Amino acid sequence: MKILLLTTVIVATSYIGYSQQDDGLNITGNIESIFQYLNEDPLIDATQPDSKALINSYMNVFVTYKNFKAGMRMESYLPRIQGYPNRFDGTGLGMRYVGYTNDWVDVTIGSIYEQFGSGMALRTYEDRSLGYDNFLDGARIILRPYKGVTIKGVYGKQRLSFEEGKIVHADGIVRGIDGEVNLNSVIPNFEKSKFKVTLGGSFVSKYQKDNRQDLILPENVGVYGGRIDLRYKRFNLGGEYVVKGQDPSSDNAYIYNYGHAALINFGYSQKGLGIILSAKSVDNMSYRSDRDKDLQDVFINYLPAMNKTHTYNLVATLYPYATQPVGEIAYQAEVLYTIKRKTPLGGKYGMTLNGNFSIAYRPNQNTNGINPNDSSRVTYTSGPFDMSDSLYWRDINFSIYKKFSKKFNLKVSYFNIVLNNDVAKVTGNAHGLIKSNIGVIAAGYKINKKHSVRVELQGLFIEDDDYGNINDNGNWATAVIEYSISPGWFISIIDQYNYGNSNVNNRTHYLYGTFGYIKDATRITLGYGRQRAGLFCVGGVCRFVPASNGLTLSFTQSF
Amino acid sequence: MKKIFLILSIAAILFTSCDKVDNAYPQGGNTTLEWSLYPNGDSTTYANNGLWPVFTANTNTNRNILIEDFTGHRCTFCPPAATEAKNIEQTNPGRVFSTAIHTGPDGIGDFQAVVPPTYTHDFTCPEGLEIGIYFGNDWPGTIFTGNPKGTISRIDDGNGQVTSSPGNWSNATTTALTANDLKVNIQAASNYFPSTEGYFLHTEIDVLDATLTNDLSIVVYVCEDSIIKPQKMPDGSTNSNYIHHNVMRTCIDGYAFGQTLDDAHKDSNGKYHYNYSYKLPVVYNPQNMHVLIFVRDAVTEEIYQVIEQHIQ
């Protein structure tokens, strides 16, 4: 496989000189390298690794030539930077594939990234910022036998880890098939209708040997479901429902319940107004190709996050919410409204209002008539959207953005967040619900054609715990200043200050400075300072990043 | 279009053919064990508390040897035989295990009989007597016509006999140990709960030699050590403080010749799992008790492997 891939890349590379003559050849890719030199900092529990310096490096190369395609990613962890899985080490091929595609067939052998529907049955993807990569190593075929009809089949083993420069696979095998039909394309006279209908169905199965002597484990575990997507003019309504067979695992304490998940999305959009309403019901839907793994290892499916991914420092990193695959019932509403220009409120440039609300509860687990200790190991029943009153998460936030002039803009945001730390644990210093209010003011000012400055002021105010004590680490404030000199230079300084910590000695400043240069597709960034320990989350998937103090140098290049 | 839906339907059937398990516990596990002997709950709690072992790869490469010493407390020549068995065992720690089975060729004979006022203790048990009668009466051309006799892993002496006199035990043991022909591997783990006198034994049997075609059985002897009771000595005297070692008291499941290894107890890796629950009679001190777990050939009677597991 490696030889085939390398040959493909070498051959393709040798054609670079001829690429202008042969339009069929296309080579793209990117390079990323992150270097850290870390110091001891006992105040924030930051440690210096034995090697003192750490480095992660990646290079993606994607080649297409006529109907052929190939891709690879070299990875290097010498050793891995902080926060990445500590088993990542060495240099080698972390991803590779070859394939062939034409109008009706697309075949890929090697590392496969794929998603069925919303991903609740199967989604393999890479998120480098999370150190997450669960691709399937195997084969995929996509058929397009008729216009509007797509059939996909995948078969492979998931990437679990990267050790000694080699991919390490999960124990189980994943098989899946997905079909999708766009009825407007298939049914005559329906093509020009403004009512658009797409139907889909997914079937995924994993196989893992029974590895326990005290239990009879199901070795083949299936997930199956259907979905529908309706669109009419400015409205869209989509839904998906999946069911999982018995899948005892370390996530669910090896119970033999079936799992199920439902997802409903409604959207409306017109110029100046966007509305999104979403609902999700999940019970026992952790689905991994190794039943004994945990954290973020080898998830076959992805349960879409029902909460907004925030970007402001204090909001995003102190109390983020990780999706609960074992069970949650969640709702989200988002409204984006732009007040027109040349109105009393809109002014010369208009004004944008954004409101977002998300909430998640524990599913209701009905145990009537069930003996949780009998030999079936079915411990409860739970229906879709059957929720208890146990709150996991609530986020009420809104923001107002207004451009006052060509030079000055302002964004004011408020966030009210409640997180159940007993379930979605983010800190060891609190129990139960953590309630916080966060305010952010962000202002941008363009000094002249080349110079601009941006300032953020953030405050996080945490409510006392049930006993009247300062909860967790108390209040925080953050100040950010960014100065840009176009086209390429930028510098920023951020200071997070834990001024409300109940322990006076821990009222720490986390000061971090960044200096960078961008030229075309090249970006070099140099950062130095303290970084707080915490969870880093993207789309409800999180990784823990330990505290650090030191220098970070990053280089990215696209081609 | 019909073809597509046909393909999808077939694929759906193939891929959704997921396993359904109505009883989560293996045979010989939850369904047959006496869970009232587990004081903290039932089988689920037992498993959830991590008491059910997960065996790792069995790295043992040695064949162990079992000496069955057919004896009796009124048998004057038996104490030297017991000493010989003990000496062989002590010379090969962890490789040789001995047990004293109080039986004659006809079961209870003069040597095993309870004769008051001195020999009041009954060392016999039904399973031990069944074994004695089998090798003493039923075995063709048997040489077990009186005590003491014994077996060395019931290995055929070349003349169709598996029993022998104590004078042969040492050489036979050495020969078997030297050959070290490991055909079956055994692992075991156990838990004892004093409040209920409940003992749970979990075993894993790995048949290494694929040429073994006869039925194999797993047998578990429950043995008591260091019983101080009268014993008739070679000089005709009675030693009232004689220490009786490794006396076979019963078989854990009541089967003198064990349970046949069958597919119902076979896991996906081809290993057999037999689990037992046993209530230790109150007369026994658990610290003096152990079990001998062995696998025998149901035709030749040869014992391919034996291990020892202490109850507490």
Question: What report would you give on this structure?
Answer:
The complex is a heterodimer of chains A (559) and B (312). Chain A is mainly β and 559 residues long. Helix content of chain A is 4%, strand content 55%. Chain A has a domain at 305-559: Porin (Beta Barrel), CATH 2.40.160. Chain A has helices spanning 2-14, 183-186, 313-317; strands spanning 25-38, 53-65, 68-77, 90-101, 105-112, 115-116, 122-123, 126-127, 132-133, 136-143, 149-163, 166-182, 195-207, 220-232, 235-244, 259-270, 273-283, 327-339, 351-363, 387-403, 408-420, 433-446, 451-462, 476-485, 489-497, 509-519, 522-531, 534-538, 541-545, 548-558. In chain A, strand 16 (259-270) and strand 17 form a beta hairpin. With 312 residues, chain B is an alpha+beta fold. Chain B has one domain (25-310): Sandwich (Immunoglobulin-like). Chain B is built from 5 helices and 16 strands. In chain B, a hairpin with a 5-residue loop joins strand 15 and strand 16 (303-310). In chain B, helix 3 runs parallel beside helix 5 (166-179). Chains A and B meet through strand 11, strand 12, strand 13 and strand 14 of A and helix 1 and helix 2 of B.
